[in-house]
Amino acid sequence: MNELYLCESKQIDLKSTLDGGQAFRWHQHGNGFRGIIGQFSYYIFIKNKKIYISSDNLSKEKIVFIKNYLDLQYDLNLLKRNFKNNLYLSSLFKKYFGLRILKQDPWETVVCFITSSVSNISKIKKNINDLCLNIGDKVGSGYYDYTFPVPEKIINFGEENLRKLGFGFRSPYIIDASKKVINKDIILENLFNYSYEKSLSELTKIKGVGRKVADCIMTYGFQREDVFAVDRWVRRGLVNNLGYNSKHNNDKLSIVARNNFGSFSSYIQQYIFYGEKT
DNA sequence: ACTCAGGGTCGAC
DNA sequence: GTCGACCCTGAG
């Protein structure tokens, strides 16, 4: 177990980024967060206004990987400058500066955002962590140190057990997603090369995945920056603070906002979501 | 004990 | 496009 320097603390806000509703397996511990990425557990923390990471066998390659996962190369100041004339967005960027979009595992985001439907962050976290505790592989000494289960494990676990864990009506949807991935009805890796529209039509083949959930999967699992996921919170921000038409449904708002903000869409959506929810 | 709402989507009309 | 149903859980 060794620890290495990542960046200055002002470069990233750990709480809003790791525990603000885009990822569900980071847990506060002391001055930082513990969590699993892939097969390894990490502790990311602040000390003397610097961010460090500790893990087993930290190598240069792992540091490069983590910096990419945290999206540290993204230029938040450019984002801020681009919308300096928009009072609402400016206040969000100032207030929550350091919030970044994580580059998570595609499969994990599929399951997490199916689970997110009409739920809340604390319940999503409970569901997802219960799933990992039950059928993930133990990879560390910490309570939550389990991997995210592959589709085969979830199928084997079954719908009834998902219901017992509290996934409710989302249980058959998660089974359907697992089956479609195993059967190659949908090949997730291919989405990295698809257009937005093509990715959307692929993802919505999965039961329980509509435009909103698909948008979240594309944003957090496929690193797309030109996606504007609209939920009840983002809707409030768009309608109440940016003058969007309240008669539009969320799908329409998503399309309009995406056209307006282009490749800034995902980050703007993230700041609006966090600002409206907080 | 009871109501309400939380990062929606599905199927029927 | 609209509408009720779908599961569960914590808060008031």
Q: Which features would summarize this protein structure in a list?
A:
278 residues, alpha+beta, TATA-Binding Protein, Endonuclease III, domain 1, five-stranded antiparallel sheet, DNA-binding
Question: Summary?
Answer:
The protein has 14 helices and five strands.
Please describe what this structure looks like:
- The chain has helices at residues 14-18, 60-69, 76-82, 87-95, 106-115, 121-135, 151-157, 159-164, 171-182, 196-203, 211-221, 232-241, 250-261, 265-277, and strands at residues 2-8, 26-29, 32-37, 40-47, 50-55.
- The protein is of the alpha+beta class.
- Among the domains are: 2-72, TATA-Binding Protein; 106-221, Hypothetical protein, domain 2 (Endonuclease III, domain 1), CATH 1.10.340.
- Helix 5 (106-115) packs antiparallel against helix 9, helix 5 runs antiparallel to helix 11 and helix 12 packs across helix 14 (265-277).
- The longest helix is centred in the middle third of the chain and has 15 residues, at 121-135.
- It starts with a strand and ends with a helix.
- The structure holds a DNA duplex (13 and 12 nucleotides).
Distance between the termini: 35 Å
Question: What share of residues are in beta strands?
Answer: 5-15%
Q: Could you give the order of strands across the largest sheet?
A: 1-5-4-3-2
Given the helix and strand composition, which structural class is it? alpha+beta
Radius of gyration: 19 Å
| Annotated CATH topology of the domain at 106-221 | Endonuclease III, domain 1
Tell me the CATH architecture of the domain at 106-221: Orthogonal Bundle
- Poorly predicted runs are none
**Overall residue-averaged pLDDT value:** 97
